[in-house]
Write a structure and sequence with these properties.
The protein has 492 residues and is an alpha+beta fold. It is built from 14 helices and 18 strands. The protein has two domains: 132 residues, OB fold (Dihydrolipoamide Acetyltransferase, E2P) (Beta Barrel), CATH 2.40.50; 258 residues, BirA Bifunctional Protein, domain 2 (2-Layer Sandwich), CATH 3.30.930.10. An eight-stranded mixed β-sheet has the order 6-10-11-18-17-16-15-14, sandwiched between helices. The chain is elongated, with a radius of gyration of 29 Å.
């Protein structure tokens, strides 16, 4: 693969030299534009309402996406962050320097233009350019037939080209930003305080996930990138903040799939004196109201299915759902060997090293999750799957936990939080043993236990996958379509 100067087309380098020879800086420090492309179009509409056929002069800037020359007339399309607008260029009206510059332009160049906005015979809003300004000479051509590229890895690896060439991709990430802002408005409007907690943790625990490890040179100690924000947010509940939330990156050293990326965005919320029922109501109300605010509807298309996010959402017992969809009542098989044998009877390829909790989770992901297309809460999980959740009154092996699903994927996870420090210690010990049995590092966060020993009020906690929620709201079937720079394999 060519590198450095070798990969730059000779023709573009020559045009760059020609521009410099004219005394033009091809990479100027600044350019003052008066309007975006969209604002220029709106300005013309306002002028037409007043009976005018053109506007006062405007100055716009953007990337040249097309150049159609017919004799002494050229039509250029330029694109900025708001959209595209056409430039009309008559060689009789353009100044001498701009005329010379026009000959050196390539698709992909970023240029500025000044002129009035009018409407062509084909009714297209167009700027009659009097001057052209070079703002950045593109030394690489844009890919041809970009929409037909079959190498999706290239789209993600060169996301800037994907954004330049694909309006739907730009729309997705504009919507992503708007959705996250709307979530913040909802949380702030309901009395929650947004906080920030450390990304580097002293312990690698807090959730059933493998962490990334790094080393701090000054302290000469290993640290872990966080796999959750839970334990620090709970410290804040203990400290007297009754409602807190954090939106931020989480890092898990695990697999990649259409719904998994090693770094992803999560929102965790904790509310004192609440339980998982309160959190369920908050989730369905928040998601439906965000959809209505940003999309104007709670009904969204996801692949070939219509999903209605309007509250209330369906609620199903975890045990009943697995029994219904898999034909296996896991309670009847209380150890890993018994459950593994039953799963093999059903034709499942079962990992012989998986513990009982992981086998139950396999039943969920294989048989149940793909069927939960409409928004659904699965409630009341086995205690072995939920080391931080409070037991359901009267049931020793069941905790007050739910997971929310839509479009066949999990989008949220929540508990009535465990606040008994002695019970929490025992569960941390068991979790550490399970991790070590799986070849992972098992640690116990003693500092968190010390905090709990000072008393934590009854609390409802939530973790919601922002990327997965955005997949649902923007009709994308892969998490890599909603993360600007997803984790990719090495270049060959």
């Amino acid at each position: 693969m060519p590198s450095g100067m070798e990969r730059i087309p000779e023709q573009r380098l020559q045009k760059l030299a020609n521009i410099r020879a004219m005394g033009i800086d091809p990479y100027p420090h600044r350019y003052k534009r008066t309007h975006t492309a969209q604002q220029a179009v709106e300005l013309l509409a306002q002028a037409e309402q007043s009976g005018k056929t053109e506007t006062e002069e405007v100055t716009v800037a953007g990337r040249m996406m097309a150049n159609r020359t017919m004799g002494k007339i050229s039509f250029l399309d330029i694109q900025d962050g708001s959209g595209k607008i056409q430039l009309f260029i008559s060689k009789n009206e353009l100044d001498e320097q701009s005329m010379a510059l026009l000959k050196e332009l390539d698709i992909g160049d970023i240029i500025g233009a000044r002129g009035v906005v009018f409407r062509t015979r084909s009714k297209e809003p167009t700027i009659r350019a009097k001057t052209l300004t070079m703002l950045s000479k593109s030394l690489q051509p844009l890919p041809e037939k970009w929409h037909g590229l079959s190498d999706v890895e290239l789209r993600y690896r060169q996301r800037y080209l994907d954004l330049i060439s694909n309006e739907n991709v730009r729309k997705t990430f504009r919507l992503r930003s708007q959705i996250v802002s709307a979530i913040r408005r909802y949380m702030d409007g309901h009395g929650f305080l947004e906080v920030e907690t450390p990304i580097l943790h002293q312990e690698g625990g807090g959730a059933a996930a493998k962490p990334f490890k790094t080393h701090h040179n000054t302290l000469d100690r290993d640290l872990f990138l966080r796999i959750e924000t839970e334990l620090h947010l709970k410290r804040l509940i203990i400290g007297g903040f009754d409602k807190v939330y954090e939106i931020g990156r989480i890092f898990r050293n695990e697999g990649i799939s259409f719904k998994h990326n090693p770094e992803f965005t999560s929102m965790e919320t904790y509310e004192a004196y609440a339980d998982y029922n309160s959190v369920m109501e908050m989730v369905e109300q928040m998601v439906s109201s965000v959809a209505m605010e940003i999309l104007g509807t709670t009904v969204v298309q996801h692949d070939d299915t219509t999903i209605d996010l309007k509250a209330p959402w369906q609620r199903l017992s975890f045990r009943d759902a697995i029994t219904q969809y898999s034909g296996i009542d896991f309670v009847q098989y209380p150890n890993a060997d018994m459950l593994r044998a039953k799963m093999r009877e059903k034709g499942m390829n079962v990992d012989p090293k998986s513990n009982w909790a992981r086998l139950v989770d396999d039943l969920l992901s294989t048989f149940v999750e793909p069927k939960l297309i409409q928004p659904t809460f699965l409630i009341d999980y086995p205690i072995s799957l939920s080391p931080l959740a409070k037991k359901k009154p009267g049931q020793e092996r069941v905790v007050e936990r739910f997971e929310a699903f839509a479009g066949g994927i999990e989008i949220a996870n929540a508990f009535t939080e465990l606040n008994d420090p002695l019970d929490q210690r025992e569960r941390f010990i068991q979790q550490a043993k399970d991790k070590m049995a799986d070849g992972e590092e098992g640690t116990i966060d003693e500092d968190f236990l010390l905090a709990m020993e000072h008393g934590m009020p009854p609390t409802g906690g939530l973790g919601i996958g922002i990327d997965r929620l955005i997949m649902i709201l923007t009709n994308n079937q892969s998490i890599r379509e909603v993360i600007l720079f997803p984790t990719l394999k090495n270049k060959e």
